[in-house]
Task: inverse folding
């Protein structure tokens, strides 16, 4: 059931997270978030975000990876496809398009 041919497939991501966390997926919702909405995200140990994060001019974003310990800094004028469950934004130029997966 977990076999997927594309590592970026949402089903693959959900299956891997479900195995790691030990909980079944409760919901998957398509989202696109402006910088204001990203800044307003509340920490939620049962919510994981998967998709494309775009960081624009004069902005940086620290994302907390799915292990809840590792942090990656995404600097200005870059994009990353990743699973994360928290972030901190410095600046006002970021956008996220993807999914929120709740367990």
Result:
């Amino acid at each position: 059931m977990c076999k997927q041919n594309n590592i970026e497939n949402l089903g693959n991501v959900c299956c891997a997270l479900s195995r790691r966390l030990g909980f079944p997926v409760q919901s998957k919702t398509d989202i696109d978030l402006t910088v204001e909405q990203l800044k307003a995200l509340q920490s939620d140990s049962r919510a994981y975000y998967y998709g494309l994060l775009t960081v624009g001019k004069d902005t940086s974003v620290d994302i907390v990876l799915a292990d809840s310990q590792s942090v990656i800094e995404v600097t200005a004028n870059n994009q990353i496809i990743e699973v994360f469950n928290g972030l901190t934004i410095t600046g006002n130029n970021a956008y996220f398009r993807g999914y929120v997966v709740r367990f």
Summary: The first strand starts at residue 27 and ends at 33.
